[in-house]
Amino acid sequence: MRPALNSRVPNYPDTRVDLIQYQPVCLSYNGLLFSDDVMTSPHSAPEPKIDIVQFRDLLERLHPFAAVLGIDVVHIGHDNACLRLPERNAHQRMGGMVAGPMLMGLADLALYAAVVGATGNPDAVTSSLTINFLRKAPPGDILAHARIHKTGRTCAGDVLLEPANGGPAVAQVISTWSLPRAK
């Protein structure tokens, strides 16, 4: 039997179970992308350690190569981020589908945004990245929804890549990150 929301756990009378369901959602209205957090819990999420303007400045100063893909930062939360890869002919391979290396770059940058949002550490580096291509990515914008599941000296998270105009996910990524200690 599963405990109900905010119910007492049997055999532990002083323990409460708070079930939190969290998923960043990116919405589209008249071609513009907006972000909203859907959270079903009375608790508020911690503030991110960096906002979108600060993150864009960080990329420009420390990671200028990120501008090559033209990725747009839609949302950064405490342990999540949503980024958009715009439709460009340069991102496509023969047959009109979005190329795998573009999707990997988008996923890596989305997780970097989520890691920095959770930890505030801009020196984080990718330790591993595994991508599962689920189906061909159709032409058009691609959204990357990144979530961090563990923070500490290493971080672990995942990314779901899906077409911005709707449809099933095109790829799923699992990644770990190393966070150098402050000097």
In words, what does this structure look like?
The structure is a single chain. By secondary structure, this protein is an alpha+beta fold. The chain has a single domain (49-178), classed as Thiol Ester Dehydrase, Chain A (Roll), CATH 3.10.129. It contains 2 helices and 10 strands; from the N terminus they run ββββαββαββββ. A 6-stranded antiparallel beta sheet has the order 5-6-8-9-10-7, with helices on one face. A two-stranded antiparallel sheet has the order 1-2. β9 and β10 form a beta hairpin. The radius of gyration is 18 Å and the shape is globular. The termini are far apart. The relative contact order is 0.16. Mean pLDDT is 80; it is low at 1-25 and 27-42.
Topology:
Elements: E1 8-9, E2 12-16, E3 22-29, E4 32-39, H1 52-62, E5 72-76, E6 80-85, H2 100-119, E7 125-133, E8 142-150, E9 154-163, E10 171-178
Antiparallel strand pairs: 1-2, 3-4, 5-6, 6-8, 7-10, 8-9, 9-10
- SSE string: EEEEHEEHEEEE
CATH topology: Thiol Ester Dehydrase, Chain A
Low-confidence stretches at least 5 residues in length (pLDDT < 50)?
1-25, 27-42
Q: How many runs of DSSP E, i.e. beta strands?
A: 10
Cα separation of the termini = 49 Å
Strand order of the largest sheet: 5-6-8-9-10-7
- The overall average pLDDT, rounded, is 80
Number of domains: 1
Counting DSSP H or I runs of 4 or more residues, the number of helices is 2
Q: What would you call the shape? A: globular
Instruction: Give helix % range.
Output: 10-25%
Rg over CA atoms, rounded to whole Å, is 18 Å
**The CATH class:** Alpha Beta
Described by strand count, sense and barrel closure, the largest sheet is:
6 strands, antiparallel
CATH homologous superfamily (4th level) name: Hotdog Thioesterase
Named at the architecture level, the CATH assignment is Roll
Q: Could you say which structural class the secondary elements and strand pairing correspond to?
A: alpha+beta
